[in-house]
Structure formats: structure tokens, C-alpha cells
Specification:
By secondary structure, the protein is α/β, with parallel strands linked by helices. It is 36% helix and 18% strand. It has two domains: 293 residues, Rossmann fold (3-Layer(aba) Sandwich); 75 residues, no CATH class.
Length: 429
């Protein structure tokens, strides 16, 4: 059953969160009060706050974000919005035309496509691999190949929605709280399956520094060694370097809208005339692609981080549908005794605010949510209900979680100076 989470009727608030508590079920963040405004039942605020403080305080902190995070970004009315999977299905159909789209779907009558562009591209990919000896002169092969190329071009356009006008309130809050993490510990690492530039744009507005594997030369070129570098301030009066604050690592596991492959290099560019986009497009065969450079570097860093002692991982907006990412998390839960895991997602339960008529047209700012039916999620849930105190499952949206995250470190001198400069120059962002 598909339900709708209403943004306009349910503004972002930590009180929207619910925690899965063994023996109690899903417990609201806030206390329940009786008619006399006295506490009738304790909420989960104390436990949620404690779990979030613990994950942010770990020696090795990483976070994994997925498509649910991008859906919180909003562009002005009439401008492209962050696409859902159904948006991509409709967008590709519009881009190639109804008849060519129907013709391609008709080639796979036994496939249960369910308006899922990932499934359609997957069967197209398998079809082309099975018929790789046939040239483009084969009408059917040529049609499928042309469809895949047009679909990928459409997807690239639709996911490249973030710009200076995009409202990124939750992203900015999230980046600010994570990027402030004390530099005496390892830098925070953000891993994401999203292609868009929402995190980069949020960091730009905050003047936070991202280490993402690209050089600081005129043409920014990717090299895995850049992840080993850091940002320091050297002063003549000091012998030792001074690590600056507000720096984090960013690993884009499936590529980025501003990555282009030119010959043997990967450069940063949003110019479609420069090289070939470096993206793992949505299809089930992306498991194999994930182990090719530069994705191999990203996945290697992800798996290595999960094995480090005193490690915590905060997962938000990721549905555990990518096996090559989900399996290392399960493996780490089995082998890393010090691992702490917090997962936040709106699809764990259906709240009373979500239960609406199936035939009702969703309003603007609504997100389709389907309750999880995922083997990885069920395995993790079983550990929680069995009393595994390393794991916390939170029902809620990205923007709700961003507000609930604690400020371990207050506003830095650097942030205050950035705001002064903005005010001096009359800039808003």
C-alpha cells in the first residue's frame, strides 16, 4: 500500500520521530500527557538523543544517505524537483515518446515492470548482453540500445536539479552538525548513493570544506590519494600544523552529476560536451559496476571504515535495496563488536497522519512511502527486538532527524566570520 507523507501538514520536527523499543514497539519521541498535562507515558526522546550523541562521538563516524534525503530538497514552483523512481519512469517515457516506450516494454511481456525504471533498464541491459553479437543493424537491438541511451540521458538531466535557488534547510542543518565534529578525531565521512549536488551546495553555503578525491588544480581531477590529504593552517609562530574545523569527507558511491570521464581521467564538470558522465544508472546489475574505478575506491573506503574499531554509522533515506552496500553493513554487524548503527527512515511504520485514501491525489510537497518489505531490514529489526543495544531504528524523515541531531560543538570562529563576511557583502548564501 502506498501512502503519502505530507510536508505542508506535518512540518519538520524532532517530535515526529519514533524509536523501536524492545517490549514496547514504536515509541513516540515526546512524552504522552494526560488530561492534566502530566506525563502519562515516557517517550523515547532520551534514548534517541543518547543514541545520536553516541554515534557522533565515535572515534570513526560515517553516515550513509540515499534517495530519501534528496526528496527533502525543494526548488521554486515550476522548476525541476528531486525525482522519485516514479518521476524517472514518467520522465523517460516523456523523453522517448509513448510509442517507442511501449514498444520497448512490450519486448519483455513476462517481466513485472510495475512502472519501475530500474527493472526496465535491468532487463534492457540483460537483453543487450545476450545479443551483443548482433550489430545495430538488428532493428530490435538497435531500438533497445537507443532507448537505454535516451533513458540514461534523461535520468542525468532529472537528477541534476540542485542549484543556488534550491531550498536545502535540512541538508544545511545536517552538514553543519556533522561537519563540526571535533577534528581531533577522524574526519566525518558522508557516503551517499545520490548523484545530485545537494550536499556540495549545502557545504558551499556554509563555507565548509569537502575532501572528495578531487584535486585543487584548475581542472579538478580525481585521484584516490586525495582522500589521504587534509586541510591544515600553518602559522610561522607554531611548529605543528593546525587542523582547521568544518571539514568532512564525501564519497559518492554511484557517481555524481558533475563527474566526467575524459580519456584516462575523471574531471569535475557539468558540461555535457565534456567527456562521458560517470554514473551507475538505476538498474539491478549495478552490483558489478560498483567494483570498477572510481566506484571501487568508494566501496573500498566504505567497507574499510565499517571494520574500524569504535565505529558508528548513521543511515538515513537508504532503503537497503542495493545488495553491494547492504551486505557489508550486515557483515560489519556480525564481525565488529564495537559498531554502533542508527537507521532513520519514514517507511518503517505507517503513522495516523499517513493513512489517506488510496485514490486521493497527493498534494504538493508529498512523498510516496511504502512500508519496508526488505530482508536486510528484517534481519536488523530482529537484532533490535532481541535486545542488541548497538542498533537503533528510528521512524522519521531526513529533516526530522537533522533537527534531532545534537550540536556537539557550538558555532566555530570560522562560521561566525563567514556570516560576518556575508553580511558585509550583502549576500544571502
Amino acid at each position: 500500500m502506498t501512502v503519502w507523507t505530507y510536508w505542508s501538514e506535518n512540518p519538520a520536527s524532532a517530535s515526529n520521530l519514533r524509536l523501536l523499543v524492545p517490549g514496547r514497539g514504536w515509541v513516540s519521541y515526546a512524552d504522552k500527557l494526560d488530561a492534566e498535562s502530566k506525563v502519562a507515558e515516557r517517550g523515547s526522546q532520551e534514548q534517541v538523543d543518547s543514541a545520536l550523541i553516541n554515534v557522533l562521538s565515535a572515534s570513526n563516524f560515517l553516515t550513509l544517505t540515499g534517495a530519501g534525503v534528496s526528496l527533502s530538497a525543494r526548488n521554486p514552483n515550476g522548476k525541476p524537483q528531486a525525482p522519485s523512481m516514479s518521476d524517472l519512469w514518467n520522465g523517460v517515457r516523456d523523453a522517448v515518446g509513448d510509442e517507442p516506450f511501449k514498444d520497448v516494454c512490450a519486448k519483455f511481456p513476462k517481466a513485472k515492470l510495475d512502472d519501475n525504471i530500474e527493472k526496465l533498464l535491468s532487463v534492457c541491459k540483460v537483453y543487450l548482453e545476450l545479443n551483443e553479437t548482433a550489430g545495430d543493424e538488428d532493428k530490435d537491438v538497435g531500438a533497445v540500445k537507443a532507448f537505454v541511451q535516451a533513458a540514461e540521458a534523461c535520468i542525468l538531466t532529472r537528477v541534476d536539479f540542485a542549484n543556488r535557488d534550491t531550498t536545502l534547510t535540512a541538508h544545511e542543518t545536517f552538514v553543519r552538525k556533522i561537519g563540526r565534529r571535533g577534528f581531533r578525531k577522524s574526519r566525518a565521512k558522508i557516503f551517499t548513493t545520490n548523484y545530485d549536488l545537494t550536499i556540495e551546495e549545502a557545504a558551499r553555503r556554509l563555507r565548509f570544506t569537502i575532501i572528495d578525491g578531487f584535486s585543487h588544480t584548475l581542472d579538478q581531477v580525481y585521484d584516490r590519494q586525495h582522500f589521504d590529504y587534509d586541510i591544515v593552517r600553518r602559522e610561522a609562530s607554531k611548529d605543528a600544523p593546525d587542523y582547521i574545523s568544518n571539514v568532512f569527507h564525501l564519497y559518492k558511491l554511484h557517481g555524481s552529476t558533475d563527474w566526467r570521464r575524459t580519456d584516462s581521467d575523471i574531471v569535475r564538470s557539468r558540461d555535457n560536451d565534456v567527456g562521458k558522465p560517470v554514473l551507475i544508472y538505476p538498474r539491478s546489475s549495478k552490483y558489478q559496476e560498483a567494483f570498477e574505478p572510481p566506484y571501487l575506491d568508494m566501496m573500498g573506503a566504505f567497507q574499510a571504515s565499517l571494520r574500524e574499531p569504535d565505529t558508528s554509522i548513521l543511515i538515513v533515506g537508504f532503503g537497503f535495496k542495493d545488495d553491494h552496500i547492504s551486505r557489508p553493513i550486515i557483515s560489519a554487524l556480525e564481525s565488529n563488536l564495537s559498531l554502533r548503527l542508527v537507521i532513520c527512515d519514514p517507511g518503517f511504520i505507517l503513522t495516523e497522519n499517513d493513512l489517506r485514501g488510496a485514490d486521493q491525489v497527493p498534494p504538493a510537497h508529498a512523498i510516496p512511502v511504502i512500508a519496508h518489505e526488505n530482508a536486510f531490514i528484517e534481519r536488523i529489526k530482529s537484532l533490535v527486538t532481541a535486545g542488541d543495544q548497538r542498533i537503533h531504528l528510528i521512524n522519521g524523515r531526513f529533516e526530522d532527524l537533522a533537527l534531532a541531531l545534537p550540536d556537539l560543538i557550538g558555532e566555530t570562529d570560522r562560521e561566525r566570520h563567514v556570516e560576518r563576511i556575508k553580511n558585509l557583502r550583502g549576500q544571502a548564501g
